[in-house]
UniProtKB/TrEMBL annotation:
Protein name: Xanthine dehydrogenase family protein subunit M
Alphabetical list of Gene3D superfamilies matching this protein: 3.30.465.10, CO dehydrogenase flavoprotein, C-terminal domain (3.30.390.50), Uridine Diphospho-n-acetylenolpyruvylglucosamine Reductase, domain 2 (3.30.43.10)
Entry keyword annotation includes Oxidoreductase: yes
Keywords: Oxidoreductase
InterPro entries: CO_DH_flav_C, CO_DH_flav_C_dom_sf, Diverse_Substr_Oxidored, FAD-bd_PCMH, FAD-bd_PCMH-like_sf, FAD-bd_PCMH_sub1, FAD-bd_PCMH_sub2, Mopterin_DH_FAD-bd
Annotated PANTHER family: OXIDOREDUCTASE, XANTHINE DEHYDROGENASE SUBUNIT C-RELATED
Source species: Streptomyces yanii
Amino acid sequence: MRPISYSRASAVIDAVATVAADPTSDFLAGGTTEVDLLRQNVLLPRRLVDINDLPLTQIEERPDGGLYIGALARMSDVAEAAAVRERFPMVAQALVMGASPQLRHMASMGGNMMQRVRCGYFRDGMSPCNKRDPGSGCGALDGFNRGHAVLGVSDHCIATHPSDVAVPLMALDARVHTEGPHGRRVYPIDDFFLLPGETPHMEHPLEHGELVVGIEVPGLPAARSSTYLKVRDRESYEFALTSVAAAVTLADGIIGDVRLALGGVATKPWRARRAEELLRGAPARRETFQRAAREELASSRTTLLNAFKVELAQRTMVRVLETLTTGTESPS
Ligand SMILES: Cc1cc2nc3c(=O)[nH]c(=O)nc-3n(C[C@H](O)[C@H](O)[C@H](O)COP(=O)(O)OP(=O)(O)OC[C@H]3O[C@@H](n4cnc5c(N)ncnc54)[C@H](O)[C@@H]3O)c2cc1C
């Protein structure tokens, strides 16, 4: 048994100060990831600072049509909020397709953004893993890696980023607000998630003790016609093999604004910028979608077991784009 001290913070400033002062401490929100990893001896904090009393549960509408979502808003509350369902359907859909109803009632938005990877070599607490134990190697590279990433990988880590809701948030250029030992910061979401490179143990640019306080989602007309498609081994309670969040505007068959991001295939929620570039201003037809999808996945690095994800991700992209632009799904 390892003793762990527990306290509840009632002000953001106290939570930040307590965790910042002790390198062996962690924040505790819904606990749906943190407690699992404690039990498995993957995380070994000596102090937990419970943040559930902090006033960070708001889901506020902004004058530009955007939203500000507090870090302690529960996944289920965000998924059910009318403003989210109407203005950002892909965000609501991604939330509902994640985890299970019980987990979504507990799990917070901040915790979702900070959740750790589902790689079995990270989570067994024993295998070589450069994330858990820097420099120890990566068991997944030559191991069972069917679910692992094909984009953004390095020689040191190929773990897939697990979050669903981070995928539409990436497509929408959301911004993550934090409060830390050195004050308030705002991160463009693309900078909030780090690629593994040579330092896979660093998943975010945050300092120890820096608390996510909210997520700002800018108003975007295209987001009203958006959708999230998640492909997985079973229809519920399962992480994505591939997923696509897309928002598109169309005029006379020509694509105007387009936002695309991929989940389940990359080491961070993956903004499909190359595909967006090819789609913007192009006719909305299958050949265009296929080319954009092909080029986005062109830099994939696969293993024997996960190579199928390249084709699957392309098909998922094409299907989502066809659904959004014609209202009908392709047979592929
Ligand atoms: C069986 C199972 C299935 C799941 N399936 C899915 C799925 O399909 N899709 C999906 O997206 N997710 C899935 N999840 C993950 C789930 O969404 C996360 O566990 C949850 O969102 C984490 O939120 P939490 O509030 O419980 O965080 P906690 O477990 O309390 O914390 C998670 C981590 O974030 C840190 N943290 C928490 N809040 C903050 C904050 N405000 N600022 C800084 N650090 C913070 C904690 O210290 C900890 O390291 C699944 C989880 C389980 C257990």
